[in-house]
């Protein structure tokens, strides 16, 4: 179990969950958690920290319908979880705002613009802040010296899980690896001018072949912004609530949705 002060809020919320430090580190960055470390036997799905959280909530509120909302790279966790567990995910619906669909940019040997630099600096700051707790599972000095995502991920995730390179790591942990098994309605809100996740990386085939996937793509909104004006709250948050309320109302009335996927398969 975790004793570091930085993770105490997680333990206060879910004191009975057996979540390891490396899993919390992954969840905090919204990155997909590997099914297993390289060379390790497949773990039981019930050991997934995401499933532990869902089961805990269901245990506390057995009549509640659970929904999930992800922002940015948190979409990698959400898509991985829903794909891995399929109809057993115990989730009624989901929303992903400013989703990260494409992981290829994580293997790039250069940064693309000031936002990439700022985000990488933020990641390094988190590593530096928790260096004492992380030093046994990642290469902290190499991570702090990294100036590309590739260098950072090699020092962190390849080191953490024993992979030889990022290509091998992402082959096992691409968030869309089990997309065929996602069985709940999912709304995606992504702007055309997102500076972190270019819309050219959005796999539009998803919304052609999967009738339970919906995309709202305004021309402007930035990354997680979606403001009507500089002093306004995000209109995307209002859309999220309205969408989930509609899905839950539909579900609680006893209606079901038969998502008959197109006979043509996605090339994702």
UniProtKB/TrEMBL annotation:
<protein>
    <submittedName>
        <fullName>Abhydrolase domain-containing protein 15</fullName>
    </submittedName>
</protein>
<keyword id="KW-0378">Hydrolase</keyword>
<comment type="similarity">
    <text>Belongs to the AB hydrolase superfamily. AB hydrolase 4 family.</text>
</comment>
<dbReference type="GO" id="GO:0047372">
    <property type="term" value="F:monoacylglycerol lipase activity"/>
</dbReference>
<dbReference type="GO" id="GO:0034338">
    <property type="term" value="F:short-chain carboxylesterase activity"/>
</dbReference>
<dbReference type="InterPro" id="IPR050960">
    <property type="entry name" value="AB_hydrolase_4_sf"/>
</dbReference>
<dbReference type="InterPro" id="IPR029058">
    <property type="entry name" value="AB_hydrolase_fold"/>
</dbReference>
């Amino acid at each position: 179990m975790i004793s570091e002060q930085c993770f105490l809020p997680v333990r206060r919320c879910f004191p009975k969950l057996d979540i390891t430090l490396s899993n919390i580190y992954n969840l905090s960055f919204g990155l997909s958690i590997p099914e297993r470390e390289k060379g390790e036997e497949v773990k039981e799905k019930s050991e997934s920290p995401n499933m532990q959280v869902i089961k805990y909530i269901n245990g506390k509120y057995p009549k509640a319908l659970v929904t999930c909302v992800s922002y940015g790279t948190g979409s990698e966790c959400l898509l991985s979880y829903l794909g891995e567990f399929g109809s057993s995910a115990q989730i009624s619906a989901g929303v992903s705002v400013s989703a990260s669909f494409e992981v290829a940019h994580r293997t790039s040997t250069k940064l693309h613009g000031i936002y990439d630099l700022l985000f990488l600096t933020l990641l390094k700051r988190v590593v530096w802040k928790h260096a004492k707790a992380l030093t046994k599972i990642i290469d902290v000095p190499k991570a702090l010296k990294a100036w590309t995502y590739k260098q950072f991920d090699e020092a962190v995730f390849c080191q953490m899980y024993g992979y030889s390179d990022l290509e091998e790591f992402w082959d096992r942990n691409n968030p869309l690896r089990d997309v065929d098994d996602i069985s709940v309605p999912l709304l995606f809100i992504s702007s055309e001018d997102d500076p972190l996740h270019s819309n050219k990386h959005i796999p539009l085939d998803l919304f052609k072949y999967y009738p339970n996937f919906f995309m709202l793509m305004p021309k402007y909104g930035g990354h997680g912004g979606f403001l009507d004006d500089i002093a306004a709250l995000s209109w995307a948050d209002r859309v999220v609530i309205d969408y989930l309320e509609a899905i839950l109302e539909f579900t609680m009335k006893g209606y079901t949705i038969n998502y008959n996927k197109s006979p043509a398969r996605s090339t994702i």
